[in-house]
């Protein structure tokens, strides 16, 4: 008798889980964006525990037919200096390599956004998480400007 009650309870629990997933996965309202070019900016980020990564990111996205068709992403130091091939030149070799990995990730994030047709397809690149966070913030800022009411 106990086994039968346990099976019934387990089946009921499983069914309630399936129904809750179905309810949560209901139709998502698709965002609607106006065609055009939009710029977005992340918040200023301070150094991490190792003193790396202070700055912000900026994107420029082009939207056509409700999709991002092009994107550029650049990162800057807090004073507005572009992070480029010279970024981190004054750091130790290990920290310079980290700094350059983050710089090299910027165009990859932009490319992932266009290829994936949305942020859901953009994954963080190991060693460039601060840039990833800046990218996500900047894209969300640009998309909020493009959103149709």
Task: Give structural notes.
α2 (93-116) packs parallel to α3 (129-146). Strands 1-2-3 form a three-stranded antiparallel β-sheet. The longest helix is centred in the last third of the chain and has 24 residues, at 93-116. The radius of gyration is 22 Å and the shape is elongated. 44% of the residues lie in helices and 17% in strands. It has one domain (36-146): Sufe protein. Chain: A. The chain starts with a helix and ends with a helix. With 149 residues, it is an alpha+beta fold. Residues 2-29 have low confidence and may be disordered. The chain has helices spanning 2-24, 93-116, 129-146; strands at residues 36-41, 56-64, 67-76.
Nearest-integer average pLDDT: 81
Largest sheet: 3 strands, antiparallel
Structural class call reads alpha+beta
The DSSP helix count reads 3
The overall strand count is 3
Write down the CATH topology: Sufe protein. Chain: A
- The SSE order reads HEEEHH
The residue ranges in which pLDDT falls below 50 over 5 or more consecutive positions are 2-29
Number of domains: 1
Provide the CATH architecture: Alpha-Beta Complex
Give the C-alpha Rg. Answer: 22 Å
């Amino acid at each position: 008798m106990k086994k039968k009650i346990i099976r019934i309870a387990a089946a009921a629990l499983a069914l309630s889980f399936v129904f809750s997933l179905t309810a949560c996965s209901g139709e998502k309202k698709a965002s609607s964006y106006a065609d055009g070019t939009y710029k977005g900016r992340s918040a200023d980020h301070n150094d991490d525990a190792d003193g790396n990564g202070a700055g912000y990111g900026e994107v420029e996205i082009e939207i056509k037919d409700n999709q991002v068709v092009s994107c550029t992403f650049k990162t800057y130091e807090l004073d507005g200096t572009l992070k480029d091939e010279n970024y981190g030149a004054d750091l130790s070799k290990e920290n310079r390599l980290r700094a350059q990995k983050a710089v090299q990730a910027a165009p990859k994030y932009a490319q992932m956004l266009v290829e994936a047709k949305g942020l859901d397809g953009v994954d963080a690149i190991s060693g460039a998480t601060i840039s990833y966070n800046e990218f996500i913030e900047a894209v969300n800022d640009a998309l909020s400007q493009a959103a149709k009411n």
